[in-house]
Amino acid sequence: MRLITTLWAFLAICFTTGNALTIIDSTIATSCIYYEKQFKWGCSKSGLSYNCYCKNINWLQTITNCVYNATSSTHLRKHAFEHIIKRCKSSGKVSLTMEQLYKYQENGTHYLVDYTPLAKKYIVNGTLKVNETDFDWYHKKFKEYTVFVERSQWFGWGLVLYWVFIISIASIFNINKRLLGFKFLRRYKNMINKTLLIPSMFKNYHDRPFILWKIFPFDFPTRDSALVITGFTILTIVSVCVGYNVTLPHPNFTTRLYANIKLIGFRTDLMAISLFPVIYFFGIRNNPFTYISGISYSKFNLYHKCCAYACTILAFMHTVVYTIWAVKSDTYSARAKRPYWRWGIVATTLLFLLVFHSNKMIRNYMYETFLLCHKIMSVMFIVAMYYHMKSYGWMGWVWSMIAIYSFDRFMRLVRIILHGGIVTATLKDCGDGIIKMTVKKPRYLRYKAGSYAFVYFLSSKYAFFYNFQSHPFTVLTDPTKDPNNPSTLMFYFKAHKGITRNILSRILSSGEESIKCRILLEGPYGAQLPQLVKPQSNMVAIAAGLGSSAVYPHIYDVLKNIDVNENEKSEYQHKFIWIIREINYLNWFHKELEWLKSKNCQVKIIVTGNNSRLLNIDTESSSKSVSEHSSNLTENLNVEKLGYRPNLQELVIKEISKSESISKDITFVGCGPAAFNDELRSSVAKSIPKESSINIEFQSESFVW
């Protein structure tokens, strides 16, 4: 099913953008138009001149005969006539038909007059014959222009193909890792992980932003992502700067300044619109390339922003140079009245607003507003680009955006319908602002470890816009049930603000242990290719706080089909390390911990809170019996009451040493608050020895927008 979805989406992109490459200006029509501009037709030189040209029978008869004399190809003649029709419609507000142009051409042959220099001084009355020597020069110059246009299109396609290359490389490695199991590059794997794949580009800032001068936030990717983005940036800059082969003198440009302005505007325009499908594809939830390539949603979201920044800068350059050109040529007032110009301003403005309000600080402080504005402006941008480009071609890029956006929305709806539409969930307060949600597993939902779902909370008791918001939560299953056929799904999430804070208040004010709520379940997402190659490494899951719900499914997936006696004899030593502030956290996660213990998985709990708060259980969500149960849990589990945050690098080094002693590869899976994730990432990268007999991997389960 997913492969069919991928193929459908890929073909949609190929067909819609592929058509855009064939819709370019007719060299013959353009040559004839500019050739005839040297004569007097009784029309002004302003931006409204086409309104006059396209109503002048002498001009129409002359231009159609010019096309006929320029080529004997029926196809090229028809294409040239189509161009004239579009030019008259868009620039002159005059509607013509193909039949009319053929009649003008035929009628013009009865009124042919020879070319004379007087035609440049006095208004032409008749159908001018073409001076072939003069026309050949115009034709040659516009062939240069056509080559430039085609080159600019291919530079735009080059940006698309760059991402095709990146996704292809990632897919090769992902398919090998999960389906084939060839161990190439094993010798260099640790070095690659240590220097490229794991560490952040800047110090240990990745999930959390680096705040410059306590004002300006900067997000830093991992080094491999930084390398990909750097390559894309260099390719974009080079593509903008090279390949300007149009020489002067030229009928379309009076000076080199005008030529540079027009050509740069054309180049940046074609490159910007070529990024439309990439931006929209990388930003959707139903991205089939996530499944094939193994690239995470968070990383695709990073590339989505990178391409959006590039597109915005290119669009800004396009806007600036064309504005300068219009002002210098004294046609700005006339052009500003045309719909394509106005819609271009709207589209560029929307691009800037989309990029600006996507800043992490704005998202964090006013997420609901950001979400609503982003959705509305994304649709408005498509509409603006449609009206900006419909008269000039290259509509394939616009249709690609529409196809991708519609595909994503359709698939979201399909997922919701297949999973029961409106379903009832049970919500329970676990203390410390953590809420547990339980849902009966929909019949057609296929659960995979590490997957997540978007949940819509429906209620008339909330503000109306909350019903349209969706929140991503990791999906878990009840460990006491059949692991291969779970009957219920569980979600743990923390109440922050907005709808989740309202839900917590509703639970606490109900006076009940739990409440019911209607929800829409969209997902699950995050599924990978089948893991046919059996992992041959120790798994060490390290979580902080609520991060346990994200790393637990991965170690659960490794242990679920292992018999206890078999696991006792296993050569692998899997471990679950949970760092929590208070012992009370054990109340809501004890079933999962006990199940891990029953599978002979090493479980270690590190409590960082001070001694006076270790048993300070929230009275609103617990009782004396629960407190006693917590005490029993501390006896059954390996609980270390540290009282402060542990040194993660020491923990990592210790686990690496253990794996080296039994010559087994090791994979660290981590999740927690942003600062914890960054510290763990940095600790693993620093702890990988230069020489080691085992491979050391790191997998972060943080969901970064």
TrEMBL record:
Residues 406-531 form the FAD-binding FR-type domain. The chain crosses the membrane at residues 154-176, 226-246, 266-285, 306-327, 339-357, 369-388, 394-411, 449-468. Residues 1-20 form the signal peptide. Keywords: Electron transport, FAD, Flavoprotein, Heme, Ion transport, Iron, Membrane, Metal-binding, NADP, Oxidoreductase, Signal, Transmembrane, Transmembrane helix, Transport. GO terms for biological process: copper ion import; intracellular iron ion homeostasis; iron ion transport. It is found in: Membrane. Its main location: membrane. It is a multi-pass membrane protein. Coiled coil: none annotated. InterPro entries: FAD-bd_8, FAD-bd_FR_type, Fe3_Rdtase_TM_dom, Fe_red_NAD-bd_6, Ferric/Cupric_Reductase, FNR_nucleotide-bd. One of its GO terms (molecular function) is ferric-chelate reductase activity. GO terms for cellular component: plasma membrane. Its cofactor is FAD. The keyword Acetylation does not apply. Pfam families: FAD_binding_8 (PF08022), Ferric_reduct (PF01794), NAD_binding_6 (PF08030). Belongs to the ferric reductase (FRE) family. This is FAD-binding FR-type domain-containing protein.
